[in-house]
Amino acid sequence: MPKYTRSVCVFCGSRPGARPAYTAAAQGTGRMLAERGWRLVYGAGDVGLMGEVARAAQAAGGETFGVIPVHLLGKERGKRDISTFVVTETMHERKKVMYMNSDAIVVLPGGAGTLDELFEVVTWRQIGLHSKPIYLLNTEGYWNPLLAMAETVIAEGFAERSLAEYMVPVASLDELETRLTGALG
């Protein structure tokens, strides 16, 4: 029987980024999830922020569920010492497995892959395929340009106000924990 009560999908970079605060946020997220008894669902990489969040969750005694497509096994160095390690055929299947095995989504800083993952779950929410909360950990204001772009999309008539409401920015790990606790119980 698993010891976790809920699962949180974390999308984040396979690189560490330019600021130490990004690594600290990833480590803090992994630790917080484990301490709350929530399973980490993530991209199964052992590099960048992905590796940091997983190692921190493991060090705090948390469950880890990693999903990686076969073509990235060599590139992202799959972290095989996690609780569950799933290899998919495609990137789309990876996102689907991660989403299906989580109760909430947290997005840390990252690049094109992270943006792709974010936009897919936001689009799914926009068209009514799910109602899971999506939180952007806005470390050092990383997500501010994206949030401004969402406002432009809305102002220019390409989306309803709900688009911005689906991506909930949180300024700190404490706020993230509070929001997740409210959403997951």
UniProtKB/TrEMBL annotation:
<protein>
    <recommendedName>
        <fullName>Cytokinin riboside 5'-monophosphate phosphoribohydrolase</fullName>
        <ecNumber>3.2.2.n1</ecNumber>
    </recommendedName>
</protein>
<dbReference type="InterPro" id="IPR031100">
    <property type="entry name" value="LOG_fam"/>
</dbReference>
<comment type="similarity">
    <text>Belongs to the LOG family.</text>
</comment>
<dbReference type="GO" id="GO:0009691">
    <property type="term" value="P:cytokinin biosynthetic process"/>
</dbReference>
<dbReference type="GO" id="GO:0005829">
    <property type="term" value="C:cytosol"/>
</dbReference>
<dbReference type="InterPro" id="IPR005269">
    <property type="entry name" value="LOG"/>
</dbReference>
<dbReference type="GO" id="GO:0008714">
    <property type="term" value="F:AMP nucleosidase activity"/>
</dbReference>
<keyword id="KW-0378">Hydrolase</keyword>
<keyword id="KW-0203">Cytokinin biosynthesis</keyword>
<dbReference type="Pfam" id="PF03641">
    <property type="entry name" value="Lysine_decarbox"/>
</dbReference>
